Amino acid sequence: MIQNAYSDVELEPGKFGNAKVRNPSDLPAGYTVMQAADIDSDPDPDYFRGSKVKSGRVKLGIVGHDGSDAAIQIYLEETARQLKSGGMAEMSGKIAHIMITRHGVPAVTNQEDVESLLGKSVSWVGKHPEEKYSQRYGPAYEGWYSRQIGGAQHMKILLGAV
Description:
Layout lengths: L1 H4 L4 E3 L2 E2 L16 E5 L9 E8 L2 E9 L3 H16 L3 E4 L1 H9 L9 H8 L4 E4 L4 H7 L6 E6 L2 E9 L2
């Protein structure tokens, strides 16, 4: 389910998946809260989320889903709900875009606050480097940064933490 959810995340040319969890043996990978939901008639879970507590907040982490429209919808709705109720998550790409544009999840837009919440240093970017996104997101989402994850630099934004 994890590799399915990260199938469009390119780690290196021609290699896709999650930067930290590439095999079942990589779990729990520091995640201390595990959630799963079974929303259909088969006995297997359809949605999975791994999280941990960081700076007194639930930091949403890894996700997995079976690829069904229903599981993806539950994943998106539950993610937005948790982020709007005090949780936080580093996001990028499609999921960040969906949380920002469809769900209006707020962002942390100050480098000091991001570093304090994450407990690690980041390379601050501010506005999204692609003009079409920086214009669409506006000043409420000028919280982009880059940091090392799984041996490579990744651009992220910290959403939630409200």
